[in-house]
Design goal:
CATH class: Mainly Alpha
CATH topology: Growth Hormone, Chain: A
Low-confidence stretches: none
CATH architecture: Up-down Bundle
Helix content: over 70%
Number of helices: 9
Mean pLDDT: 92
Strand content: under 5%
CATH superfamily: MFS general substrate transporter like domains
Number of strands: 0
Length: 174
């Protein structure tokens, strides 16, 4: 990285990937906000519901290293756009699904898509910013992502209470 002036493109790229990291974090916690509604809609027991989180986190953890390799080989833009698409497909499948296995598959897609959110932020920061600023952008991305559930939980719960979980997840789809 040239230690001179950082281009606007670098800031926009970092901001876009950081917003994706925030979005995927909201998707990660959203089913917990609608647990009774999801259990009723998909006729789940408590054990069945716990598989939704398990499938998401197992896939998320398993794909971290391959995701880093893919970002190095294919580039941040391609991998992040593919990841956003996987998250949207997973969320869409949860919205239109009506069985436990469809909900589980949707969480697998979301876990696959979410895996590169923070890795993408770190790659953009490492490649686009001077070494004196990299740690700031990496930490800012992590902070932004972790604030996602804090900022989204209350409005999302309000939306769920005033409409339905389908509508709330459709809003997350947009």
């Amino acid at each position: 990285m040239n230690e001179e002036k950082t281009s606007m493109h670098a800031y926009l790229a970092w901001g876009g990937v950081a917003l994706f990291f925030l979005y995927q974090y909201v998707l990660r916690i959203a089913p917990g906000l609608v647990e009774p509604e999801l259990r009723s809609a998909f006729f789940m027991t408590a054990n069945d519901f716990s598989t939704l989180g398990s499938f998401f986190m197992f896939i998320y953890a398993l794909v971290q290293i391959p995701c880093g390799l893919l970002i190095d080989r294919l580039g941040v833009k391609r991998v992040v756009l593919s990841s956003i698409l996987l998250c949207l497909v997973g969320n869409g499948l949860l919205i239109i699904g009506n069985s436990l296995w469809e909900a589980q598959v949707s969480r697998i897609f979301m876990g696959l898509g979410s895996a590169c959110g923070y890795i993408g932020c770190m790659k953009v920061a490492a490649d686009s910013f001077p070494s004196s600023n990299r740690s700031f952008f990496m930490g800012a991305a992590l902070t932004l992502g972790l604030f996602g559930p804090l900022l989204a939980a209350k409005p999302l719960v309000h939306l769920i209470e005033t409409t339905s979980w389908h509508y709330a997840f459709t809003v997350l789809y947009l």
